[in-house]
Design goal:
With 85 residues, the protein is mainly beta. The protein is built from no helices and seven strands. Strand 6 and strand 7 form a beta hairpin. This is Ig-like domain-containing protein.
Length: 85
Amino acid sequence: TLETPTISVGAEVTSGKVVNATCEVSYSCPSDPLHITWNHNGTRSNEKSNILTFTPSREDHNKNLSCSVSFKGKTVTGYTMLKVK
């Protein structure tokens, strides 16, 4: 089974400073790669890796950041609420 991914964004998210968000999922099958999709402020990102780099703004405060992981027709999505300082 595919577990729900967790998103880590580091200790502090500050408006105007670049953030690296990481989508973490327990998975091991190198012959069948996962497909990762990020969604930030309702906008799907073209970033396909498990790390999304973005610059948050004050408008991002209390907004969801999500990453969806797809594998063999199944998709699970993890969310985190951004706390922007």
